[in-house]
C-alpha cells in the first residue's frame, strides 16, 4: 500500500510505501524555523511540532512537479530541507550525504494520515512552544527502525534512486541559506540563532 503526499496548491505530489515507515513529532527550533520560513508555520501543531513520516529518500517517488523541488540548509551540517517552490509547502528533511539514507516527510501533505499509524516518538519537547502532554515515546526504538530502513536501502541499492540527489550525489536543487532578514524572523531571539 502507498500513500500520496501533495503540496498545498496541488502542483507537486509524491508517493511513498506505507509499510516500513515510522512516525514522529519533532519540536526542535530548526524544524520550527524551517516551517516558518517555507510556509509561515502552517505545518506546525499547536506546540510548534512537525509531524513527520520517517522513511528513506529512495522510497519517495515524485509523481508530479519535480521541477518545483527546492532546498535549503539552516546550518552547514544540518539536514537538507526540501519544500515546494509553487506554494512553499515543507516537504522533507534528508541528511546531506546520500549514502546515509534517511528522509522524513511532513505528515500534513498526506490526506489519510491514519495509514501510517500513531506517533511513536515526540522529540525535543523542551523546545516546544507550549507544554506537550502526549507520551514521549521510545527514542531507542525509533533510532533502531531508522537504522534498519537505512541499512536495507544501502544493501538493496535503493538509496541511489533518491529524487533529492543526482546520480553524482549532489542535491537535485541548489541549496540556499536563509538571508539575515529571514534568520531574524525564524529565530526571533539571539540565543535561538544557530551558527
Q: Can you offer a commentary on this structure?
A:
The chain has 195 residues and is an alpha+beta fold. The chain contains 3 helices and 11 strands; from the N terminus they run E-E-E-H-E-E-E-E-E-E-E-H-E-H. Strands 10-3-4-9-8-7-6-11 form an 8-stranded mixed beta sheet, with helices on one face. Strands 1-2-5 form a 3-stranded antiparallel beta sheet, with no helix packed on it. A hairpin with a 7-residue loop joins strand 6 and strand 7.
Low-confidence stretches: 191-195
Q: How many β-strand stretches?
A: 11
Listing every helix as H and every strand as E from the N terminus to the C terminus, the arrangement reads EEEHEEEEEEEHEH
Mean pLDDT: 92
Terminal residue distance: 41 Å
By CATH reckoning, the class would read Alpha Beta
Number of domains: 1
- Helix percent reads 10-25%
Order of strands across the biggest sheet? 10-3-4-9-8-7-6-11
The coarse silhouette is globular
Total helical segments: 3
Briefly note the CATH topology name: glutathione-dependent formaldehyde- activating enzyme (gfa)
Q: How would you describe the oligomerization state of the chains in this entry?
A: single chain
Largest sheet data: 8 strands, mixed
The value of Rg in angstroms is 16 Å
SSE class: alpha+beta
**Any idea what the CATH superfamily is called?**
glutathione-dependent formaldehyde- activating enzyme (gfa)
The CATH architecture can be given as Alpha-Beta Complex
The proportion of residues in beta strands is 15-25%
